[in-house]
Amino acid sequence: MRTELLNAELKGRKAGLIGKSIHANPYTEFELKEMWLKGWEDGARLREPYISDVDPRYN
Q: Is Acetylation set as a keyword in this record (predicted)?
C-alpha cells in the first residue's frame, strides 16, 4: 500500500506536480490521486504541444 502511494506521488511529480515527500507528509490515497491528477493536468498545460494535439492524423 505504501509503495503504491509513493509511486502515485512520483507519477504526479513527473507529470508536473511539485510536492513534498510522502514520508514527511503521509497523504491519504484519495489526496494522492487528486495530487496526481492535478500534476498531470499541470504537466500537460506546461509542456510543449505534441503534433497529435493539433493534427488528428497523428492520434
A: no
Place of cell 497529435: 52
d(CA 36, CA 21): 14
Cβ pair 15, 39 in contact under 8 A: yes
Q: How do residues 6-17 score in pLDDT, each as one tens digit? A: 677 677 666 554
Give the position of cell 511529480.
13
d(CA 12, CA 34): 9
8-25 in b/e form (b: 16+ CB < 10 A) is bbeebeebbbebeebeee
